[in-house]
């Protein structure tokens, strides 16, 4: 019989039947294509499911992270037939005459060329700060999304539509085109050919309300921001990355127990004593630049004094820092002197792993890194594509 295991996240003994495959670095950060060492099996199903919805999603779907990831992807999109880009979220919108069913909310998003997207979706009060709402609800409960393109130029609307369809993938959403698209001869393109639904009477009415609000230049929005969106996530990521890099020695450290306390706060009012800086307490913005890379989700692991510290940034912004454990821990994955840097590019399903020293040498031009030069070339092409898109009318 297989022996029980201690769950990395909750620290409780669990049977093998309760073990699940967990990516220490979640999918939205590019964890699906991260090195194999970041795949864990010592995580229980309960932690995997509950932390995915209440901890990973609280971070991933916060307004800041959603929009930073969209900006990062934009830096790596090089041509019209690249995959659609993540939409940027503006926030819940109040549009005059828009019919929003009970228990739903209208949310305003922006496409890569400035397309307006209005998504009428189920609302879950507990997830007011989640862009896109409750991710499980929107897979099961129906919603309607409208897109208003900014241009009839195929170069622009093709990427806009592809981005719209990608954002609604696996969502139970009807898709309505809110403007006519015409061929060169002036004939209107049938929206169903482009993957849209034919509007019902109510949807046609809503389409008019959205158009009127756009022409009036007036879509009032409200942004719900939870400034503590990252605390539990930081601790969870520290557990996953710390164990992946340092192995069993990581499990016996007092800091590991504190990180668990941060993931599952005990009901007795005590809080985790782990050291770190959450996203908005990192006052020095230049730190994110140093510990980051354009277009990348960057994970930095460095020895500073008595501790190993991890920092995370997205597109050189929104840094967070957390202690992984004492600097006495060693690992053949981490260079003691030069640290460990993992750059993830979720939009391109790729990563670059190197030392912190190598990353800094590349960024400062002292010594170029071949893998990063490839990324830099993609970014240069993306920047040209951006100019081309902006010039298309
Ligand atoms: Zn667990």
UniProtKB/TrEMBL annotation:
Residues 7-63 form the HNH endonuclease domain. It comes from the Bacteria. InterPro entries: HNH_5. This is HNH endonuclease 5 domain-containing protein. It comes from Pollutimonas nitritireducens.
């Amino acid at each position: 019989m297989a022996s029980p295991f201690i769950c990395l996240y909750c620290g409780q003994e669990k049977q093998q039947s309760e073990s699940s495959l967990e990516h220490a670095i979640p999918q939205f950060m590019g964890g699906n294509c991260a090195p194999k060492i970041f795949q864990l099996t010592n995580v229980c199903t309960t932690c995997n499911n509950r932390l995915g919805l209440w901890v990973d999603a609280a971070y991933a779907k916060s307004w800041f992270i959603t929009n930073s990831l969209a900006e990062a992807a934009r830096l790596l999109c090089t041509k019209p037939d690249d995959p659609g880009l993540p939409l940027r979220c503006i926030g819940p919108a109040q549009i005059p005459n828009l019919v929003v069913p009970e228990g739903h909310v209208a949310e305003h998003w922006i496409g890569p060329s400035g397309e307006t997207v209005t998504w009428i979706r189920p609302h879950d009060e507990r997830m007011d700060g989640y862009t896109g709402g409750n991710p499980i609800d929107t897979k099961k409960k129906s919603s309607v999304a409208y897109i208003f393109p900014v241009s009839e130029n195929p170069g622009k609307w093709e990427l806009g539509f592809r981005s719209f369809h990608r954002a609604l993938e696996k969502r139970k959403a009807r898709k309505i085109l809110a403007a006519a698209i015409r061929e060169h001869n002036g004939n209107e393109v049938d929206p169903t050919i482009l993957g849209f639904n034919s509007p019902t009477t109510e949807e046609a009415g809503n389409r008019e309300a959205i158009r009127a609000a756009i022409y009036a230049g007036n879509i009032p929005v409200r942004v719900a921001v939870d400034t503590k969106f990252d605390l539990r996530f930081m601790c969870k990521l520290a557990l996953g990355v710390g164990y992946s890099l340092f192995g069993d020695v990581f499990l016996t450290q007092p800091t590991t127990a504190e990180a668990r306390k941060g993931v599952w706060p005990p009901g007795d009012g005590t809080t985790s004593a782990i050291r770190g800086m959450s996203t908005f307490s990192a006052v020095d913005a230049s730190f994110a630049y140093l510990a980051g890379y354009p277009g990348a989700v960057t994970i930095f692991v460095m020895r500073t004094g008595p501790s190993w510290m991890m920092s995370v940034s997205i597109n050189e912004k929104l840094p967070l820092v957390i202690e992984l454990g004492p600097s006495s821990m060693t690992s053949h994955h981490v260079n003691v002197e030069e640290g460990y840097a993992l750059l993830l590019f979720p939009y391109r399903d790729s990563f670059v792993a190197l030392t912190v020293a190598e990353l800094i040498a590349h960024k400062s031009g002292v010594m170029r890194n071949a893998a990063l030069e490839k990324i830099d070339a993609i970014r240069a092409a993306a920047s040209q594509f951006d100019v081309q898109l902006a010039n298309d009318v």
